[in-house]
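Here is one such tokenized protein:
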Amino acid sequence: MNILVIGSGGRENAIALAVKKSPLCTNLISAPGNPGMERLGKCIPVDVSNPNAIADLAEKEKIDLTIVGPEVPLVNGVIDEFRKRGLRAFGPVKGAAALEGSKAFSKNFMKKYGIPTAAYETFTDLNAALEFLKAHPAPIVVKASGLAAGKGAVVCMTDAEAIAAVEEMLGDKAVFGESGKTVVIEEFMEGEEASLFAVCDGKDYVLLSSAQDHKRVFDGDKGPNTGGMGAYTPAPVVTDEILATVKSQIIEPTLRGMIAEGSPYTGVLYVGIMVTKNGPKVVEYNCRLGDPECQVVLPAYDGDVLALFDAAEKGELKNFNAPKAPKGSAAIVVIASEGYPGAYQKGKEISGIEDAEAIGAMVVHAGTKMQNGKLVTAGGRVLGVVGVGKDLQAALDKAYEGCAKIHFDGAFFRKDIGQKGLAKCKK
């Protein structure tokens, strides 16, 4: 098969690595790709926000299956465009991708179909939102309804933080632009978060292993939220009992609901859950693999990733023979640029990737580029170092051993990835 992977981040590098291993893959193209993906096949520039440009590329390159990594082209309707042209692409149509594209839509959807989530209200008027906050003191969560690159949800532990968040979104600053013109304010849920990924064909699904992300920038879950500083799989907080509840009360009703809405869900359904004292509740939906969770759940999948995605796109998961359990554990540690998630410098030369790979770590590129023949930093999250092992400790040891080999000015990473998981494993 001639495969096209859309995207340029760590998630897409991990997808490309997994796809390249499949005997079904005869040729791999990435668009726009990154230096890590360039090692696996040709990279071609494309505007990922433009469904027509992506479809044109697939036609020109005679692609058999396109795998769309980021949310923007999905929310913009790239799958609809492919289907209109008779092309094959793995992902949800625009109507289904609205589960991520609009928090207001997803919350109303969950309410309509009885899917457990936090109580909420939706606002477009600043004064109405501020009045609501007076009657609902912190802790509380304020979310921009639209896409905000993973940074549109603010957990407010004080009333002042909640007021500031609402004013930033609905006031004159409008920090999230159009994405923040509708705001969802919801109850604060106590518990532990985890991520689950269902590969769906519209009716049936295959569940990948559970994962736990680390959003805060510093050790001890301190500092501002980021796109993710590390992750591990499987997540011990997701017990067999929790998993059964998630399947019956969240994933299956979601798939039935999307059929009823006229947009059967194909592609990867990401369900972020909070494991509360009253059971698992949905924190958010995403319409694609998570980043950095993708970089651990795909290496832990003990089967052919491309065969799985191909069967899902064809609507053939009902009889698909998927492995029942992950292959050991996997962990990723993200190496970031000094200053991230705030202002940071680019263009710092990177060394040591080959040394990290030589000891068995997998290195994925997230924010890198080639400049004058040298690999340099080009983003806040620069690289992800992945370790796979028989258990979580072994996976973390390998990832951190790899991190120690990689260097660039201002590089930093969290030293406590996976500690919650390790603590549960020892109980």
In short: The radius of gyration is 21 Å. The chain is about 35% helix and 25% strand.
